[in-house]
Target: Heat-inducible transcription repressor HrcA
Amino acid sequence: MLDERKLAVLRAVVEDFVNTNEPVGSKALADRHRLGVSPATIRNDMVALEEDGYITQPHTSAGRVPTDKGYRLFVDRLSSVKPLSSAERRAIESFLTGAVDLDEIVARTVRLLSQLTRQVAIVQYPSLTRSSVQHVELIPLGTQRVMMVVITNTGRVEQRVIDGLGEINETAVNDLRGMLNRAISGLYLGEVPGAVEDLPSQVPPEHRHMALSVLSVLLESLVERHEEKIVLAGTANLAAVDFAASLRDVLEALEENMVLIRLLGEAKDPSMLTVRIGAENFHEGLRSTSVVSADYGVGNQSLAKIGVVGPTRMDYPGTMGAVRAVARYIGQILAGQ
Amino acid sequence: MLDERKLAVLRAVVEDFVNTNEPVGSKALADRHRLGVSPATIRNDMVALEEDGYITQPHTSAGRVPTDKGYRLFVDRLSSVKPLSSAERRAIESFLTGAVDLDEIVARTVRLLSQLTRQVAIVQYPSLTRSSVQHVELIPLGTQRVMMVVITNTGRVEQRVIDGLGEINETAVNDLRGMLNRAISGLYLGEVPGAVEDLPSQVPPEHRHMALSVLSVLLESLVERHEEKIVLAGTANLAAVDFAASLRDVLEALEENMVLIRLLGEAKDPSMLTVRIGAENFHEGLRSTSVVSADYGVGNQSLAKIGVVGPTRMDYPGTMGAVRAVARYIGQILAGQ
DNA sequence: TCCTGGCACTCCATGGTCCTCAGTGCTAAT
DNA sequence: ATTAGCACTGAGGACCATGGAGTGCCAGGA
Model:
């Protein structure tokens, strides 16, 4: 049904349309690409491609435009990830070296990715649930409150002030800190609830109230409410695009953290590039955008995701190359820390 | 030169233009506002206002549009800050209560402000330089590294990993922590450098290297590199506006943290509402936007600023009311913490 | 059987013309 | 000083003609 030449035509249509943003006709194709056949033949192929739903006409007597299905086929079978130029690779290195802490790594990464792709970049902080506890610190603040600081092996630091403990006994705090660290340091956050279950019973009754308060905040902040921090950059790049849906809808969607999390979260294949095209995205406002995302992590442990949001009419090979490269570099940097 | 009636005409022009986004003519003015004179008289006044540069015509035979100078006069003399409706006030309360930490307060505030004004909201974290040290914590991480956590009275927490200390001696860390807290807790960050000057000499020589490393990181992260954290929300509201400058330029400017900081920083009058209109903004891309900003703080100590960015054609009284109200509420919440 | 040149057809985009209408400036009268 | 009246202006919308890119189809050729 879809012989080699038809696929070549589809590829040419996608490439030309991405370049020019104008419906592409049979003549233009025959001129620009060495397909070795006449426009008439191309027209016949186009009819077949249109019948199968890979391309469409905005109106009679106009050229063809790829559909979501067409882009999908292009991404799956007709293109390969484009490796970065050496200039781009140097840009990555100079951009990411010299970051002093996780916040800065993430901030720089997201800017880098948006500049490389000229689109909107999204970077997720290393997931809490896939991190392990490195240290728990309890810091008395005055005589009534305690600040809890949890440091993970991925560099994330979560802090929370705990209130309503009554008068604080410093040695009790020290004891609790010691017990907590012995119980949970080194564990994955998902294992924490089980590990602290019988901790209260080991605390002398007069301090059990404090221990319970601290534990409940710990569990709440780390496990139940495992908020995923997300940063994005490059929204200005959207202004250049003219969306089928209104720009406002896209911007609104991008401001919803939950939407972004799901957007990245729906990757099918762990540790691989994922591309979601147009209506494949669950969100109304993102029907005319595509999302390219990838896992990053240390070794083969995936920590979180990064991604790029742009118009369905995007340079998939280039974008995929940039996302993959940045994901690898960020993994290296985290490993080196 | 500018008698009462001319001012009334200017006010009416501004109000109508803000509402309709269309040049306003003498007849429409006479109809909608009870100026008590005929369109012809209004026309004469308009000529005078135009000669003085308060309004302008997009082209002959069109209505008038306020200039930056016109908006300026309107803000300074012809309008008053509009108090919030009770519904809005309730919205603020329900929005801001229940925030557990500073991050959440700031995140909620910026969303709230953007929703109230339907524009882009900017919120600055409480400035480090105007905060005081509540506690410094040193946490050994493994045997080679120490994490330093600085907690300020405004709820900001800065953390940094310190490397290259060689083998760590736990009691030495404890001693240093004690000395540090005795030396600087309670001080404003600006006073920290002076207060730690002669600290190294009090440390036993074998641990002096560690002390120096810790101090240098402390000074660098808090004082020299006093980065101002800024958050913004509501960029989607820009999509509804048609800017003279391109939307892209505006979005780009808003992604530059340094620009935002200057934008808020240029307030003339502390603890008051500041309005910068159009070309009064230093930044090219923001020539067709206005910025309404205000200080917030606890008591009469100003901690940082919040603001709103929108088209010069904005509802100044309403926006100013919202900014002022939110600034006050955030001050109360911080005071209550 | 597949490809190609030729041809009639279809619409969009472009640009010109005309007309309407909101709004102006000016003048003369109150 | 204010107003009614009036001629004038220019943007924007409706209308129409035209050019051209692109199509579908068919008949002839490899």
User: Anything to note?
Assistant: The mean pLDDT of chain B is 90. Residues 37-41, 44, 58-62 of chain B lie near DNA strand D (CB under 10 Å from a C1'). The longest strand of chain B covers residues 301-311. Chain B touches chain A through 29 residues (CB under 8 Å).
